[in-house]
């Protein structure tokens, strides 16, 4: 099972996957042609990979806000005057 952003989030049974597809909460990405599920009126191939229509279990961001990360984000340019600046890597001993 994939999140709406194509991130793998778990494994579900074939029954649960079919219910999500029938309720239009997921769409079929890949199925198993060798495994056929039959009822009185319908035939289904077993879903192997489904894509949820909504985001579920969005992974948390791992980037932390720090001075260096802000500089990298702005490509070492001032956001006001767009001048390039250097970051001093040495620590002051005061």
What is the helix/strand order?
HEEH
Structural class: alpha+beta
Share of residues in helices: 10-25%
**Outline:** rod-shaped
Largest sheet: 2 strands, antiparallel
Number of helices: 2
Estimate the strand proportion. Answer: 15-25%
Low-confidence regions: none
Rg over C-alpha atoms, rounded to the nearest angstrom: 24 Å
Give the averaged pLDDT, no decimals. Answer: 84
Cα distance spanning the termini: 55 Å
Total strand count, please?
2
InterPro entries: NA-targeting_endonuclease (IPR052892)
What does this molecule look like?
- InterPro entries: NA-targeting_endonuclease (IPR052892).
- The protein is an alpha+beta fold.
- It contains two helices and two strands, in the order αββα.
- The chain has helices spanning 14-22, 67-73, and strands at 26-38, 43-52.
- A two-stranded antiparallel sheet has the order 1-2.
- A hairpin with a 4-residue loop joins strand 1 and strand 2 (43-52).
- It is rod-shaped and about 70 Å long.
- The termini are far apart.
- The model has no long low-confidence stretch (mean pLDDT 84).
